[in-house]
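seq/struct pair 1
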Amino acid sequence: MENFRNFVEYYDEFFPVTESELSFFSELSAAQKKPSKFLEVGCSTGLCALHLAKLHNDVTGIEVIKNFLDSAFLKNRSPILPLRYFKLSTTEMGNFLGKNFYNIIYTLNDRIVLIPTKNQMKDFFHNCKQMLTENGYLILNILNFEYLFSIADEKKNSEIPTKTTIRAKLISHITCTQNGVLLNRKIETGNGKLLPVFENTKIYPLTKTEICEFGKQAGFTNFEFYADYNKNPLTENSPELVCVLS
């Protein structure tokens, strides 16, 4: 079960857009034809898409969660920014968005793991490859599940590093069960109130090994893995990863 209404108010605080993140994207788009065409899959509140559009990129965001879309539309108050949002899922995007059109497709903050099945995850990689230009990039920012699995306790629970802001904390953990991997995530406000976000939500724990496997099947030939947007090396103890496929 999910409660995204609780999540929207604090989302931009837990997942701010950093200068290193924007520099990372700008470096990749530097060799592309201007304006670079970006597609954000699972754009959430639209904050990153908005920043990229302000840097003179052409940006499309797709999202299926109404609370997030409403927030994204409210942020985009300029009628002249090259920025648009659509209510589309990963299973729909290949049918409605252009082939060989986007220079960079990206998904941030673990959103991709909400794709529920292995076959749908494979389809995601295939669709992205079809929608990218010849020299385009697919960027994934997800939890490093191989690390999280390695630190799981005897009950197969693994704590995800807590995100803390001035107003609240985002407390998360995953549990491995016979029925799959479940995500639990809650917000603790400054007065100690707990607001549920995910309660035993089934996710697909996409690993580095599978990124390479599914990516190669889709036609990608180059894979770069980092621990963060500063391009620090990915290690077995890195809590999350950033991957560039081309």
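seq/struct pair 2
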Amino acid sequence: VAIIIVLQCMRTNFSLYIKANDRVVVYSLDSILMALIIAASDIILISYHHLGIQGYLLSEIIGTGFSILFLLTKGRVFRGVRFSKRINKLLLKDMLSYSFPLMFNAISWWITNFSDRMVLDYFFSEEEVGIYSVAAKMPAIVTTALSVFTQAWIMSAVKEYETTKDKRFFQRVYIYYCMALFSGVSVVILIVK
């Protein structure tokens, strides 16, 4: 669990750096690649090797590790890094006061995401928990794809609104967003038993 937390912190920082540098394609591919690798390794480790919760945790490590490698190689994260011996205490204080309440939110989501599998593991066999984990990855792929789109849309919406102030742009994008969401969820409903 500690390895997962460290890797996810690294991945989050790298992906936010790439997003801030307007590298939307790399940012999008990374999220999709990570979801697919985690789903594939869940299938292999839980269903075929019967590793249960350990297999799920290993899948998270594998997927996040591949994501970090992808961001380091394709995202060229370290090109813009500059080390400074001086720490801006005012900025550090502002960042900590902003992020402190978000820590409880992240911990709550983590507990929610892991507790369901632990409770199911208590009542059901590891194979059934594995099937649940893999089935839960299907909607996660749709959610990941839509969140990637949403992040990219937020960045382009700010640029578009600054130049044209056209409300029709937002209406068209919202209609396409709803259509994509409806289509994606429909496909997942057909696939998931």
